[in-house]
Predict the structure of Carboxyvinyl-carboxyphosphonate phosphorylmutase.
Amino acid sequence: MSAAALKALHVPGKPLVLPNAWDADTAKLVEAAGFPAVATSSVAVAAALGFADGEQAPADEMFAAAARIAKAVGVPVTVDAESGYGLPGAELAARLLDAGAVGCNFEDTDHATGDVRPVGEQAERIAALREAAGDGLVINARVDSFRGVDPEEALDAGVARAKAYLEAGADCVYPIHLRTPELIAEFVRGTGGAVNVTAWPGSPGLKSLAELGVARISLGGGLWHYLRKQLEATLAGVAEGKLPY
């Protein structure tokens, strides 16, 4: 499947909904449920491999997991590539494309320091990835500048950051920590491009988020967290002698 097919699914007001998968089996279930694309969740993939999120898993293992997922389904796959694992744009693009991905998340957090990169630096990284990938990848540029701050006070700077990323070649921008409907609507209006948001617990529902004009909705690690809690409860019952079936 092509990046063009994935990009065409990003429609403001009629967003692409992505229940993020973490292995070939869960990716197949997403496809079987009728979703037109599969996205991976870095936290869930890393956990399934025995590592913490935040680029703690070896890049080779993350790309191998992505390749298994892409091979297992017939719909476009977009990979949560975190902050790029320290790879230059050309190598990151090559590894994503070799894995069969046609899209990626690309964070502006520097996982070596925990800080958000200066906007100019991240824009250059996006431009390098775009140049290397050509039209082969849909770049979803994550905007992490709303983390740990008053989101209303950070809105103008966040919008400016997002616009810089779009100008550098990103196809979509992703203010992952922006949750309130009013601020999401302002971000969408101010950015003027495709916007991805996360469907957090307690956040506006899928219909409401669509009405705010977003073009893409991710569940992130939400499904993994939810199912993991269900499994924990089930295992506790088995430990008490209760079979779940």
